[in-house]
Amino acid sequence: MIRVLLAEDMHMVRGALIALLNLEPDIEVVAEVSSGDKIVPMARQHRPDVAVIDIDLPILDGLSAAAKIRETMPSVRTLMLTSLGRPGTLRKALAARVDGFLLKDAPPGQLAGAIRDVAAGKRVVDSQLALAAWDRGECPLTDRELEVLRLAAAGSDAPEIAVALSLSTGTIRNYMTTIITKLNGRNRVDAIRIADEAGWI
């Protein structure tokens, strides 16, 4: 029997997933949580084989929770679920060394199969998402450029970003020009949209 911990903040979705998984003869949901901070304590208490984790959780996001599981309980395998098929998000998940990555709109049987594969030590990645990540390529922005763009996406203007990063306003404007050029954006808003859709910010 494969013991599963399910982390999903939407109650109806979590209930539906539990009902579906408990219909499988070899899978048992032994614990459920609605926020990322509860994953490790519940995993310690219930010792699941696989933690199925929504990537967008309150308090502690799913990827950070998965990283904590890997650090503290390496025997627990992690399968991430997301409703957003962004290539950049997949790259972050793979960088966090999760064992599987699946879109929430996958057929129910695919989730059960992914849990079995992950429990058996295989790595599972949604094929459409893998192709999209391959086609999209690496993020062309440097860490500092991403930092500037994240602050811009949060609503900060050039002078505010300059203060936050201890740089001049002119330097921030130069960074924004470079960012827009690298992303082939029309303007700052378009650059933020492009980076957000790719999962880079």
Question: How would you describe what is shown here?
Answer:
The structure is a single chain. The model has no long low-confidence stretch (mean pLDDT 88). α3 links the parallel β3 (50-54) and β4. 36% of the residues are buried. α8 crosses α9 (169-182). With 201 residues, the protein is an alpha/beta fold. The N and C termini lie far apart (39 Å). It has a 6-stranded parallel β-sheet with strand order 2-1-3-4-5-6, sandwiched between helices. The protein is elongated, with a radius of gyration of 19 Å. The protein has 10 helices and 6 strands; from the N terminus they run βαβαβαβαβαβααααα. Helices cover 53% and strands 15% of the residues.
Percent of residues in beta strands? 5-15%
Number of helices: 10
Helix/strand structural class: alpha/beta
Described by its quaternary structure, the protein is single chain
Based on CA atoms alone, the radius of gyration comes out at 19 Å
Low-pLDDT runs of 5+ residues are none
